Amino acid sequence: MTTPKRSLLKIILLGDSGVGKTSLMNQYVYKKFRAQYKATIGADFVTKELQIDDKLVTLQIWDTAGQERFQSLGVAFYRGADCCILVFDVNVLKSFETLQVWHQDFLKQVDPSNPEKFPFVLIGNKVDVDGGNSRVVSEKTAREWCEAKGNIPYFETSAKEDYNVEDAFINCAQIALATHPINIWPLDEEMPSHCDLERIQESMTGADLPRGGCAC
Ligand code: GDP
Ligand code: MG
Using a 6 Å CB cutoff, which residues line ligand 1? Predict the structure, then answer.
């Protein structure tokens, strides 16, 4: 008899501080939005189960602990990523310009065998702000960037108003499933539901961690 399996996908969120990465994750996973700014503490991942076609998929979504301000996320963060969601704020030009650096950094750290085919998704967040009047990056400009990077899917979202958030994450899972040999986790084995990145990094003195997993 074969044990039913589920796929485990590691998804990482990258982008400048303040663009709404944590808010997007919280909106998608917990359906919650927090208006006041609270720097992410104890970066880790959260999991979300979903079904795509006939496949049971567990998304392991990794958010930063705000270390993106120092551009030092560490190897554990990137290791074994199946899809990378790049996020910018449509009202902040700098956050769009920096995408280039995040994209490059990611490829450098992960070093995928086929970088042109690696699944990325781009999110232009905060489209709700000021009814769109303070927007400085147009949809056209964002789409051109995506095209130049090998047709990355693009989503305009509002984590605040829960606009397009789920679609962006589901698309990310779909393209990751389509392009990656995936991690299979037996259904009867407990999977960690969250994890403290600092603990992982501390425990990472030379020893190799399981792909997409942690030592907690
Ligand atoms: P991170 O540093 O990328 O994780 O960004 P956060 O998720 O912490 O968000 C930074 C700030 O932007 C917080 O005050 C959020 O409440 C706010 N924010 C995030 N997403 C949205 C959005 O879609 N619309 C609006 N108006 N504010 C948002
Ligand atoms: Mg954050």
Answer: 17-23, 34-37, 40, 125-126, 128-129, 158-160
